[in-house]
Amino acid sequence: MHILSLSTLIPEQICDTERFFGYEGKQRISHYCGYASEFIARVLEDSTVDGAAFPRTCDSCRTVGSYMESSGKFLHFFHIPIRRDAAAVAYLAESIRAYQTAIENHYGVKITDVAERAERINTRNRGLRALYEHLLELSYIAYLETIHTLLQKPLQEQEVPTELSVRAASASPRVLVVGSTQAGTGLVRQIEAAGMHIIGDRLPESRRLIFAPEVSAKGDIYENIAKSILAGMLSPSQDAFAEIIKEDRNEILQKQVRGVIFLTQKYCEPYDYLFPAYKRMLDEISIPVLRVTEIGSSTENTALAIETFADLL
Amino acid sequence: MAQLYLQLQAKLMRDYYKDFSKYAKGKTPTRKVAWVTAFTPVEILEALGVEYIYPESYAAVIAASGQEQELLKESEKNGLCPDCCAYSGCFNGALSTGTAPRGLPPKPDVLIATNNQCNTLPNWWNLLAEKYHIPLIVLDYPGESVEKERSLPYVTMQHKDLIEQMEALSGNRLDESCLAEIIQNSQRSVAAWDRVAGLLAEKCVDPMALFDGISYLIIARCRPETAALYDAMYEIQEEAGEADAEKTPVFWLGYPLWYHPQRYLKELLPDFRICGSNYITWWSLDYSGDNPFEQLFTAYNYTFLNLSAETKRRRLQECISVSGAKAAISLRNKSCKCDFVSAKYIDLPQVELEIDMIDREYLDIEHAKAQLDILREIV
Predict the structure, then answer these.
(1) Maximum Cα–Cα distance across chain B
(2) Is this structure's pTM higher than 0.90?
(3) pLDDT digits (tens, 9 = 90+) for B334-378
(4) How many angstroms separate the CA atoms of B41 and B21, rounded?
(5) Which residues of B lie inside 8 Å of A (Cβ-Cβ)?
(6) Does residue B58 lie in a domain region?
(7) Contacts of residue B88 in chain A, CB cutoff 8 Å?
(8) Which of A152, A268, B26, B243 has the fewest CB within 10 Å, making it most exposed?
(9) Helix (H) or strand (E) holding A289
(10) In the CATH scheme, what architecture does the domain A170-312 have?
């Protein structure tokens, strides 16, 4: 079983999936998120991948399945409710059960270790949270690389390092990075190479893990997973912008951030819509923002913009 | 019949737009106002006396009046990416500048968005909520991706919550029999509209009449006058002659071009006639069910864009088959990323045009001509 997942919203407690972070494939779809398009290419072209799981959190995700339906591979469209109340928890718990059943039926397996996996994920996320809380002293590149590496491995092999590269104390301007999932660490490397110090983020692959409440093994495990997902970071399409902005404003002020770098994929409408509201908040507290829109791999213009922003700070 | 049609049309337009110019000058509406997306269960709002306004429709009106470019630029200046849905760019630009052809809609007391069409609308409504600092209600419709046993109670629970919230807002209590009656109005409007839309395949009907005519099904589907309007429209259009057999029947797969005087590229298609369009079927909602809640669930959970790829493909094929089309023009719409995926399975000669339904500058007319020449040759 080798399922590729498009999002960290796909519950890892059910079974191993490889979290997708980028692929240089042949599939290109106009007016379509490059990241989703690379995901489609990987599922279609990589014969080692036999399944795909994806949520319905943006317009590109809504149509991902239609590009892969003739692949003959296991495809699971995961619906995450927009609401967060008790009814939504019950509904999502059923969706998680349905996901498990679909996997069991397709692969002819019996999944019996959900609670055990949940505990292991709790432990991993605690480790990542500890790293996140020390980003003032640690290399953000190493932190993000750790997450990307871990999420591409089976859960059994995911060991969070207790030590990461330590940064030398410096007066580098502190920045927060905000945006959609990063296809790699190229952009954050450029940011730190330009002399800025990333001390926090709102990237799904990081924040969704470290701020997800722990899943209790007591009671109905599926409801507990659902509660954890809905209490954590969702897509901007599902979260209220006001909540996102309030949380980030607090973090920016608390950590004395001097600038924000807003990293999005071309045609990533949840973040494209978030941006004007987010920028208004930044303007109110006089924090400059640089918006970087990725189209495939980073370009020279992006490098120049990042260097100029670093000079400005 | 023509007089009745004009009277009904004028009434519906007046009821919807009559105070827009006054609202722009600060007039306060007499009823509570909701801004809603195009597939909101407005029957609930109608039953509770809440006024509802469709920003998407107004963006189309703005584009038809030729004012969209400056408003799109205004939105871009305010940080909205030009890749975003041009409906939102156009409408938000109007809010920001305070200018639009008929004035401005009344300020909302509540915002209601649904995701049975796309995920863009809840994002856009979030931006509006940030602007006005008012409650935002997002209705979540799982569509065909989830079996009915789970989705029916989930959606019904949201509809009941919406009723409670609208009762609190309006101070009115919902009368279920009134809701049932209003749903019947919607059913009648849909049935009457379907008869009108069916004429496009065989009669010499101007497609523009249908592209514009469906707006009443969008903004006033649960009003009793709407079915009467469409009945009158049917009588008038039925008298049109038979469709020109010399012209190749072509299916228009996508949105009308709101900025275009004929709503489609008529000047490039002298030897084609539009015999069908999926857009004019999108609001043909199926209100079947044993009670009002099940009816609302069926209508709004299974909107066309919320169906599985397989069902959409089947529906589209049926629609094309009924139209008698010999070719198709499918629009890859910059604003609507959920719209065109089914086109690739159509077993007809077709061309794909890069286009936007609001932003006229997005069309490369020379390229479109070349594409249509290719289609002509294939046909």
Answers:
(1) 63
(2) yes
(3) 888 776 666 667 788 999 899 999 999 999 999 999 999 999 999
(4) 27
(5) 78-81, 83-85, 88, 115, 118-120, 122-124, 126-127, 129-130, 136, 138, 140, 142, 145-146, 150, 154, 157-158, 309-310, 332-334, 337-338, 341-342, 354
(6) yes
(7) 273
(8) B26
(9) strand A289-294
(10) 3-Layer(aba) Sandwich (3.40)
